[in-house]
Specification:
Layout: H1 3-12, H2 24-30, H3 35-38, E1 47-55, E2 61-68, H4 83-98, E3 110-112, H5 135-145, H6 148-158, H7 160-169, H8 187-191, E4 192-193, E5 196-199, E6 207-211, E7 214-215, E8 229-230, E9 233-236, E10 239-241, E11 245-246, H9 255-266, H10 281-292, E12 330-338, E13 341-350, E14 355-364, E15 370-371, H11 378-404
Parallel strand pairs: 9-15
Antiparallel strand pairs: 1-2, 1-14, 3-5, 4-7, 5-6, 8-11, 9-10, 12-13, 13-14
Pfam family, one: Beta-lactamase2
EC number: 3.5.2.6
Protein name: beta-lactamase
């Protein structure tokens, strides 16, 4: 952070450096669930970023940050956690376009065409009430159930070049979005985006805005991380290759970038004005609503509670076997899970007890060090650790709060 930005935040009282004793080492050392993983934090690629939030008499939030083994240059695959910056940047692009195109909103019906190999079309979306696709509906599906196709469509709408520019404008310098998910995107297909047309209504007869197909011809950003090869072997087309899996051409980010994105959505005044996301009030409300909404609480799109349990995408404080969230607690978050990596980027609040904090964590759980074999230790190591970490920080918050009363 530049010196000027630090001074602005200090003078405004919205950010405080971590001068108090960091509680994370003690919590990790003394807890029977956390300690076995923390003792092998290196092989587990464990990183934690915890931000305590306290409010003054005017209800202004003040932040104090604590870190545990934060390694911005140690790679982790972000998986679905990368969808949050994609979603907010898509909404920001809509807001920018709407300044020149009256009537265009995130709810405007759209059609996506295909003009190149590997691209697919979209004319209908039966998950929406009017059976039409829209940017807002894709954002809902991303935040509710981490829908891969929804992310891919937003990637196509914003495009790799504009994603890079917007990430840079918001000082998310370590975040790279350079491919779709779960469709085998190659360099050539990731560079090409589909044409998109927005319409005035669901009849799709009156075009409102036409965005042609584009091809990104520049150089991809290079990840800042140094160790971009993970594991000792991986499977490719069912064959074992006794070499690490190379992630140099994959999406990338860091925990500070992920938490900064979430914090800028929830607490826009806590980041410099020029780096705040430019959203209209309805789209910001959309993000705030669906970051914490449970799948069964949504009507359009509609999801079964049996197929999508309340805690299915809430790893911290609630991960593991299907079950309800802790009473009185709201979790605004975006998770990621792939290749043995588990990520949760969360804001946890319990208004009745005056508890609120940001907690972001990445953990690698792949004992056999073989990637793509689907033999990861999510259920036995990863999710129990994340659940307990959330509980431990939450209980710490309760203790600190009670001591101050």
């Amino acid at each position: 952070m530049k010196l000027f930005s630090v001074l602005v935040l200090l003078l405004s009282g919205t950010w405080l450096p971590s001068v108090a004793q960091n509680p994370l080492p003690r919590l990790l050392r003394t807890d029977s669930v956390l300690a076995p993983v923390a003792r092998h934090a290196g092989p587990h690629r464990l990183q934690i970023l915890y931000t305590r939030i306290r409010r003054d008499q005017r209800d202004n939030p003040h932040f104090r940050q604590y870190r545990y083994r934060l390694r911005p240059h140690e790679y982790f695959y972000p998986a679905s956690a990368i969808k949050l910056p994609a979603a907010v940047l898509a909404l920001e692009k809509i807001h920018t376009l709407a300044r020149q195109i009256p009537g265009l909103t995130s709810e405007s019906p759209l059609r996506i065409d295909s003009v190149a190999w590997g691209q697919t079309r979209v004319e209908r979306d039966t998950s929406s009430q009017n059976h039409r696709a829209s940017v807002a509906q894709y954002v809902r599906k991303i935040l509710l159930v981490s829908d891969n196709d929804a992310y891919n469509r937003l990637y196509e709408f914003v495009g790799p070049e504009e994603l890079r520019q917007r990430l840079r404008a918001h000082s998310l310098h370590h975040t790279i979005l350079r491919h779709r998910l779960s469709v085998g995107d190659l360099d050539s297909t990731a560079r090409r985006t589909n044409p998109v047309v927005f319409f005035t209504d669901s009849s799709l007869t009156r075009p409102l805005y036409v965005q042609p197909a584009t091809t990104f011809t520049g150089a991809w950003p290079r990840p800042r991380q140094q160790d971009l090869e993970v594991g000792k072997a991986h499977l490719q087309n069912g064959q074992r290759i006794n070499q690490p899996l190379d992630f140099s051409a994959r999406n990338a980010t860091t925990l500070p970038d992920l938490q900064r994105t979430l914090r800028a959505i929830l607490f826009p005044a806590s980041v410099p004005r020029r780096q705040q996301f430019q959203l209209d009030s309805l789209d910001r409300r959309l993000l705030l609503d669906y970051l914490h909404r449970l799948p069964r609480q949504s009507q359009w799109p509609r999801y079964s509670g049996a197929q999508y349990p309340d805690n299915g995408a809430k790893f911290l404080l609630a991960g593991g076997a299907p079950g309800p969230l802790p009473p009185g607690v709201r979790i605004y978050n975006k998770i990621g899970q792939a290749y043995g990596f588990l990520i949760d980027n969360a804001y946890i609040t319990d208004p009745a007890h005056g508890v609120e904090f940001l907690l972001s964590v990445v953990l690698y759980v792949n004992q056999d060090e073989v990637l793509n074999d689907d033999l990861y230790d999510y259920d036995t190591v990863g999710l129990p650790f994340l659940r307990r970490l959330g509980e431990a920080v939450y209980q710490h918050e309760l203790r600190v709060g009670s001591e101050k009363k």
